[in-house]
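We treat protein structure as text, and this decision shapes the records that our systems exchange. The remainder of this section carries one protein's record, kept here as part of the documentation:
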Amino acid sequence: MVALLYRDGYAAFTVLRESLEATDGAVYSHLERLVDSGYVEKRKEVAGMKAQTVYRLTAKGKDEFDAYLDVMESLLVENPRLGRKPS
């Protein structure tokens, strides 16, 4: 979810749900936790004749995800075979 928002900048609830192939409840509960933690912000907007909720990472969310990516990259650089099955 965070990776999608990081990559795309923002996403509507329905796009996140469909991309993750998850239920409304699962997506909503995770998004609300991210909003409550200050990592994601949400806003309502009009799309055609319907209202939709759009989510995007906050500066805090981007910084935290950048830090996560740095850790993951360092793990892979230190041990590039980590997590790979032998061929």
Q: What stands out?
A: Residues 5 and 56 are 6 Å apart (CA to CA). The chain has four helices and three strands.
